[in-house]
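Issue 218. Parser rejects a valid record. Input:
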Amino acid sequence: MNKFSRTMNSPATRRSVDEITGSRRLRRTRKADWSRRLVRENHLTVDDLIWPLFLMEGENRQEPLEAMPGVMRHTVDHAVRQAERAARLGIPAIATFPNIDPARRDETGSHSLDPDNLINRATRAIKEAVPEIGIITDVALDPFTSHGHDGILRDGEIVNDETVAQIAVAAVGQAAAGADIIAPSDMMDGRIGAIRDALDQNGFQNVAIMSYATKFASAFYGPYREAIGTGGLLKGDKKTYYIDPANSDEALREAEQDLLEGADMLIVKPGLPYLDIVHRLKDTFAVPTFAYQVSGEYAMIKAAAANGWIDGERAMVESLLAFKRAGCDGILTYFAPEMAELL
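Output the parser choked on:
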């Protein structure tokens, strides 16, 4: 027996675990499945899920997205079927994002104002077929512009005020089509107040605003941009209007401003890399707070699972629980139908 072993076994130096912990054994509540469930602090339910759906032109078609296994673009009639599926699963709301025909895109995203554009046609069709499901629409201009930016591009600059005026009009059009929640993701200054004023002045006082208050200039958006057809269009980057990923206090200032202008709910985007932002927003403002588990987050889990590197189902559940633990009231996630079926 070496000197270390003799010292460890000496009665003079050995204390029992009960003496060390004061008889506080934290593993007691982890000993069985029933006890773990009994003391679980956060729970994920189908009521926490919002399902993003991608739209495309045409009839009775859907297209798979290579970088997002299991995710499709849907024509309007197929989107209606997906909304019906969501309702059967108990998912409270869907969020729609269009892949606009390139021929309809221009420098100003003017097609966003067309009352019969793809978003609005899908909203009307879904509301008629599935009136009980919530519909969330985005008024950012990136699906409609020829340059892929969220606003109007003038002389190399995304002009703020002209963009705000246009998206406020587009928001009224989306509300008239039946959108329940307008969720502007463009990050222009003053957009929330302008949209609230436009909605109220046109009789849509009951249409809510879910603001992408803290949308970061992230590397995790790549597959989404392919899904809406802007991946190859983007000229420059979006750092002049999205938040620097290094900043946390700035995110709080953005959220506070949006709430003062009339936002009813807040979104943090992306999700998992910004759980600290979720937690700070919820602690500071105590308003309904959501996160968007974006395409890159989804794709990483799916790719790792496909390669056998992780258990995809467990990783999905764990990632969604993390949002609840951080303080989310709900999550926009492409896992929504898969998670709802599991639940």
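Fixed in the parser; the record now loads. The chain has 13 helices and twelve strands.
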